[in-house]
Amino acid sequence: MTASLSRRAFLTRSAILGCSAAASPLLTPISLAAAPWDQRLVVIILRGAMDGLDVVQPYGDPSFPGLRRTLTAGPAAGALDLDGFFALHPALAPLYPLWQARDLGFVHAVSTPYRDKRSHFDGQDLLEAGTATLGSAAGRDGWLNRLLQSVPGVEAETAYSIGHDNMLLLTGAAPVANWSPDISLGLSPQAVRLAELVMHDDPLFRDAFAEAQALSGSMQTMAENAMMAVDGMSGMSDMATMDARPKGKAKGIELIAEFTAQRLKADTRIAAFSIGGWDTHDGQQRALPRALGQLSQAILTLKAELGPQWKKTTVLAMTEFGRTVRENGTKGTDHGTGGAMLLAGGTVRGGKVYGDWPGLSEADLYQRRDLMPTRDVRAYAGWAMRGLYGFDRSVLEQAVFPGLDLGTDPGILR
User: Pfam families per the record (predicted)?
Assistant: First the structure.
């Protein structure tokens, strides 16, 4: 075995392992980027199509009770009243103090331009690309990366990539860093020593690994990558055994939020990660609270860990599309159109449900089945970035979200 393994070879092999890991449902990616601002932006992608009508329940709409036979509906069923018309799902009760402090708000009846086919894959791609259609030239980049491309001198966080490629949201020409904590590996002492040898002469890479080790509580992922990089080495199966298993979900999202907050307190100004579990075709009363618990934990952990920096932070939680207004035969909801987004942080003008409510009578529905979108979800993201960073409107409408008309300022930031 040669001990002079190059950093290029190491990174090449690590990238191969990362591509394989990207297909694993056990991994939760987090992407970060540094920028010359003091304000922080966190974008959370809610994968699986969150039912906004169950999360922010329009119990004041006279048509609503007849559309949801078994699902929670308003304060009488345990939801928390927000404003006399909308109520918050009980599973988000831990966030209610943020609503009272005006650090939490919601937007209803929003969507991307995606319509009718209701595919999770296409819907998520369009949400993260930020374009009007799939397959456009701009769609090869994510909208957060295009935002960074418009800022001269943007630099990535310390150069590391553990277990997963960047989310499409932050994919593109602008440099970003990537980290994922959710794989646990069992390593022999020989494997640990090999990792130390590989990274010994590269301070940048060695320090990045040490930081990742401290944050994830494990040396295992990077050392396994190092072993994969050694050409012609025999007996590797004896050096380490992979014990790939998901950590407890609550712990996983807590780690992600803690890591995000630590980086935001340092040089990072933009972060993005995803939370799954929103595809509630069956037994929504069981499934949705679990996903909402993840979202609640992420936001509360961000607030606690950020400390004073919470006042400079905006959190946007977005989903690919909503769900049908009518409950289905398996006590769930199917893929729909209009949905809701969540706003949180010390910069948010919370305590309000934003958006133009279209109504839930059959004539008011999209295709007589879905909540009618009344505004593009990208417009709210655009106004948030304009308010945080002062971007010219033309940059947002032409470069970040090509072809989008931002419309009037909804006033979501303080």
Answer: DUF1501 (PF07394)
Instruction: Specify the residue for token string 């919370």.
Output: 350
Containing 106, the helix (H) or strand (E) segment is strand 104-111
> Kind and range of the H or E element at 187?
strand 186-187
Give the separation between CA 382 and CA 313, rounded to whole angstroms: 15
Count of CB atoms situated within 10 Å of the CB of 251: 13
Written as one string, the DSSP assignment of 15-78 is HHHHHHHTT-TT---EEEEE-S-S-EEEEEEETT---HHHHEE-TTSTTHHHH-SSS--SGGGT
Determine phi and psi for 109, rounding to 5 degrees.
60, 50
Those residues with Cβ within 8 angstroms of residue 151's Cβ, 6 or more apart along the chain or in another chain: 35, 36, 174
pLDDT of residue 159: 23
Task: Return the closest-CA partner of residue 345 out of 290, 414, 284.
Answer: 414
Ordered domains of the chain (ranges, CATH): 28-183+247-400 (3.40.720)
User: Quick count: other Cβ atoms within 10 Å of Cβ 201?
Assistant: 10
Query: For 65-92, what is the mean pLDDT?
Result: 94
How many whole angstroms separate alpha carbon 353 and alpha carbon 81? 12
Question: What are 91-100's pLDDT values in tens digits?
Answer: 999 999 999 9
Gap between the Cα atoms of 195 and 162, Å rounded: 14
List Cβ neighbours of 23 (8 Å cut-off, separation of 6 or more): none
Residues 6+ apart with CB under 8 A from 219: 187, 192, 195, 209, 213
Please name the residues in contact with 377: beta carbons below 8 A apart, sequence gap of 6 or more: 107, 110, 111, 112, 127, 318, 341
Tokens standing for 396? 């947002």
Helix (H, G, I), strand (E, B) or coil at 111: strand
Query: Model's pTM, two decimal places?
Result: 0.78
Q: Does the structure show a pLDDT above 50 at 310?
A: yes
